[in-house]
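Dear Dr. K.,

Following up on our conversation at the group meeting, I've run the structure prediction for RNA polymerase-binding transcription factor DksA from Tepidimonas ignava. I'm pasting the input sequence below exactly as I used it, so you can double-check it against your construct before we proceed with anything downstream. Let me know if the numbering doesn't match what you have in your notebook.
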Amino acid sequence: MVSQRKSSSKAAQPAAAAAATEPAAPPRAARKPSAAATRRAQQAAMHAQTTEAVAPTHDPRAAKASYTAQPAMTATIAPSASVLVKDPKRADNWKKLPVEQLTDADILAMPDEEYMNDVQLAYFRRKLQQLKHDILLNAGETTEHLREDTVVVPDPADRATIEEEHALELRTRDRERKLLKKIEQALARIDSGEYGYCEETGEPIGVGRLLARPTASLSIEAQQRRELKQKLFGD
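The predicted structure tokens came back this morning:
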């Protein structure tokens, strides 16, 4: 029996030595999660973020208190410089100053019973004549510009720019030509004593409207009716 144990131990020693010299097996690589599992994990994380309660960064009551504590403020809009306001202090300037020194504010401040008296007619005549003078002066300058720009420009871009400027200037002069005709008609109405009264209703047009548009021949209401008629019937 002792001999059997010795033989078995001797047989086990080579096996143990072989096992010691045999290289160890490499570690098993970890399994990567599938694409479906990754997608489910991302969806779960997004759901948790969207459903998580967000803590306020400030006290809502503090904001409400600061808002209600502020007094109500009303916006103040400064009147435009072109809008005239009737100033009672200027009501008698037309009696003291010559027509050449009167302003639009002085004419607007005149009493209603003095509507289209000799002073107002003289003032509007002067205003229309000055407007006529400016239009004729602009027309002369346009003619001079067109005469000076007769030199041929070789560059197409520069030539197109000059032609566009000429076209714009000619359109402006055409509008002024039509305005010049209205100025002549307004001066004729001053001579006939019809200036300042609506040619359709005979009612006063108003000093304010005439100061803004000296060539006006219709009241605001009559002008609106005419524009509506032209819009509906095209005549």
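Two things stood out to me. Residues 88-233 form a domain with the Four Helix Bundle (Hemerythrin (Met), subunit A) fold (CATH 1.20.120.910). Residues 50-81 have pLDDT under 50 and may be disordered.

Best regards,
J.T.
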